[in-house]
Amino acid sequence: MHDSLNLSNLTEPREKTYYRLALCISIIGWLICVVTISPILIIGILALLAWLGNGLLVAQIKADAVKADADQLPELANTLARVCEKLGLREIPELYILQSGGMLNAFATRHSGRHFVVVYSEMLETYGPDSAEMEFLLGHELGHIKRSHLRKRFLLWPGLLFPLLGNAYSRACESSCDRHGAFASSDIEGSINAMMVIAGGRPADVAMNPSAFARQYTDHRGFFVSWYELISGYPTLSQRVAALVAIREGRSLSRADRNLLAYPFALFSLGGAASGGANMMITIAMIGMLSAIAIPSFVKARDNGQRAACLNTMEMINEAKESCASKFSYQQGNAISEADIEPFLGCDFATLNCRKGGDYTINPVGDAPECSVHGTLNEQYRSR
Question: Percentage of the chain with pLDDT > 90?
């Protein structure tokens, strides 16, 4: 925790400004939707799809991620409770650890009135369960909950489609949450290190210089950097580190100038566009959300079907092999050829194909048949 931060000044002033502006636009937008009726039906369908999609996301979290509580990861659960107390949150959200495949990230979500925080396993491994870095990370995500960012987004939806405003509000929210994280952390240096790890990976604490990285925010300006900042929903990592360094030094962050030419380009860029681009943004976001849910489920179902078909084929091969061995009194370890078992298969062995492209091997008597993709028959039984 840093002396310049307290519960009354954690919210970025620009967040409040952008919120009021987006709220005014949204009220007008919702009134138009109510009068014309048709948009309400479309929005209702989109909201239902979003709710269903988020429900599946929460279901995946509950089913596949590890819940941190008194029985599992108690140190991390205690850190969460401590951070909630610092931020004045009475209700402690459920915390889960999700295998990340090397990604460094965390997020908060809400469904059916309940809040969830998910930390990717790589973050836990890098930060540790009871560190200033983990306090910062959890404080950031809890900042979204404390500021009701998740609930406000639906209310502000029409206003957030307005050119440049949506991303500006999102960036301000992220800055507010960084301040919440720094307040919740027991050490501002840990907060800075947490952001450096997100920016540069694990070597951040020994191989990188936060002050030098923070200077990139002001040193590297120009048209393209300005354009990138305007169409992004997050402040750049160099800006976020610069803000934390400013907190450490007891000063306010001086905003870097932007190239004015970037603004008209940002108006018509995906993510910060006017009406056409905004509609495209929502369409792509919805497609992306549904794809993120549907594609993994489809792939998993396809893989399960291929594995089941392969298992059935290997069981046929094994039964034919056992029948052949019994009829000709083969001993343990005796080799059996494809020609030997074909009369018992009732088909040519060459016609048996694994749907995933694997090749079958009969193996000697006593050894299970094998697929080059799915493994042996016994391995398939164990994996079911």
Answer: 31
Q: Could you tell me if 185 and 87 are in contact, meaning their C-beta atoms sit under 8 angstroms apart? A: no
Q: Dihedrals φ, ψ of 362, to 5°?
A: -70, -45
CA distance 175 to 240: 7
Q: Are 188 and 2 in contact (CB under 8 A)?
A: yes
Domain ranges, ordered by start, for the chain = 13-273, 309-383
Which residues, including other chains, have CB under 8 Å from residue 169's CB and lie 6 or more apart? 15, 18, 19, 22, 156, 160
pLDDT in tens, 143-156: 999 999 988 888 88
Give the distance, in angstroms, between the CA of residue 175 and the centroid of all CA atoms in the same chain.
Answer: 19
- For the entire predicted model, the pTM comes to 0.67
Contact 377, 370 (CB under 8 A): yes
Query: Residues near 156 by Cβ (< 8 Å), separated by ≥ 6?
Result: 19, 22, 23, 26, 169
Nearest to 240 by CA among 152, 297, 286, 176: 176
